[in-house]
Design brief:
Elements lengths: L9 E14 L1 H7 L4 E6 L6 E3 L17 E14 L1 H10 L2 E7 L7 E5 L6 H9 L8 E10 L5 E13 L6 E5 L3 E6 L6 E4 L10 H7 L6 H9 L6 E3 L6 E3 L10
Antiparallel strand pairs: 1-4, 1-8, 2-3, 2-5, 5-6, 7-8, 9-10, 10-11, 12-13
Amino acid sequence: MSCFGGHEEQLYLVELTIEKLKLTQEKVEDINDCLLVVKVKLIDFPILEISRQDFYFIKPGQRDSDGTLEFAVGKCCLFTKQPRDLMRMMQSTPMKIGIFCAGDRFPIAQTEIPLSGCLCDQVAMASNDQDHLPKPYILKGGFHLLDPGETPSGIITLDLRLHCLGKSFTTRYQLRPKSFLFKSDHDEHEYCVKRVLPPGISVDQKEFDIMKCGDDLLTKIEEECLETEKPGEIKEKGKGDIKKRKGKKRRNKR
């Protein structure tokens, strides 16, 4: 199969993460701590707007000593395309990125990034063998920003991944009262998703603590979502020490 020989539509997933944003000191002084929005135009998609303000419980971004802002926010999009059409779009249309203050129509800084490379192998593998999906197309690194007057204005660090999923993609899930587990056919790991209510909704403190996200709640999430014990060990309730099981190991039923 050549790059332009794929006439059957394939299922694709594109993931775009804005990792870091570093503006020059002059630009930082000009924006006066405004809320920043990154707008991305990728092939024929609608403009993607990426902002840390999309999340209620995310902590305000703090710049480090050299002025770099840890953005760590992204978006993903699932779509279908004929491989040849996707290749032509990627080769002829660079990805355009603009940095805006929220609500403004004109960018603080901007850049264009060519999408080079080929997905021939990825398309062929996804079409022929659904059990062995190809590695994604990856564009990763830091890219220089210019303001509308062509003055250097900073650097944006991003990670773009384009996955070819073949004709279909399956996800397994299990519903729970306040969460759910899911996994794909191509990943042995299981993932737990918990709901987070936005501010202003009245709930008691115990339920609110359960719904919060954060590394400090890993133990609670493991207890509710994973419900597993260490192989060969069992912990008695009310005691701090762990006793070894005797006999054969027993696997927990999921």
